[in-house]
Amino acid sequence: EAQVTQNPRYLITVTGKKLTVTCSQNMNHEYMSWYRQDPGLGLRQIYYSMNVEVTDKGDVPEGYKVSRKEKRNFPLILESPSPNQTSLYFCASSLKPNTEAFFGQGTRLTVV
Amino acid sequence: GDSVTQMEGPVTLSEEAFLTINCTYTATGYPSLFWYVQYPGEGLQLLLKATKADDKGSNKGFEATYRKETTSFHLEKGSVQVSDSAVYFCALFYSGGYQKVTFGTGTKLQVIP
Predict the structure, then answer these.
(1) Quick one: which of A76, A112, B43, B73 has the most CB atoms within 10 Å?
(2) Is the minimum CB–CB distance between B45 and chain A shorter than 8 Å?
(3) Nearest to B46 among A48, A50, A101 (CB)
(4) How many secondary structure helices (H) and strands (E) does chain B include?
(5) Comparing C-alpha atoms, which of A82, A108, A101 is closest to residue A14?
(6) Which of the four pLDDT bands, split at 50, 70 and 90, describes residue B98?
(7) Burial, B9: exposed, middle or buried (Cβ in 10 Å; 0-12, 13-18, 19+)?
(8) Chain B contact probe: residue of A35, A37, A56, A91 with most B CBs at under 10 A
(9) B10: helix, coil or strand?
């Protein structure tokens, strides 16, 4: 089954404790993205990747890092999380950026 | 920069009513336009898309026409069902700029029996 898998689904952490949210897709897609969803702000793109070892900033990259060492994986790293990064995060992949995007189930992150 | 503006929600309709959710965009050039739907507790799913002016995207009874002259991509459905209750996002991708997708803020639709 074609899918994008994010882990964990829910995470509560403390300020400053590094964390990684994993994202994996099994569709051999080139384009992958991370978004955060906040009430009244919709989805905002954090980072995107056009292919292996090619990543670029989206609209709200501050406080986040990503890597794309393999085509299927695109982890999101918060080196020192802060409460303003409490949000619902989605990973997505598509063959190209202008084709259908497939989204993961989301990760609800709370930073206290 | 590129932007998408959607009508504020929530929108509450009775079953079988006509639905319109407005979406306008700002982009230099000719973006591809999308509507995504998010059901409670799930990720987004593509509902329909259009890649050039005057294209009409359609799926599951929903339609949207790419109007370059009014920079709009309004979502319509002739008769909504309770199962259409969800959040709807308009989005654009413009290949001439950064290779990123811009989403609107989402419009929540609630359909009551």
Answers:
(1) B73
(2) yes
(3) A101
(4) 0, 12
(5) A82
(6) low
(7) middle
(8) A37
(9) coil
